[in-house]
Tat pathway signal protein (Harenicola maris), 53 residues
Amino acid sequence: MILSRRLFLGTVGAAFGARALPVVQGPAGRRILTLVRDKAAGGMRAVERVVYH
């Protein structure tokens, strides 16, 4: 699936919005959002990972 610019910006906005919401349960961790180039799809992709201390 090829992401259009509008869909990509919506995805990134949703990721930031979900990050702003308080976490109800779970251990505290640091969230890292990285934008990577997806050569197979020919576009950019947002990858989020949680790093625990």
In short: The longest strand covers residues 30-38.
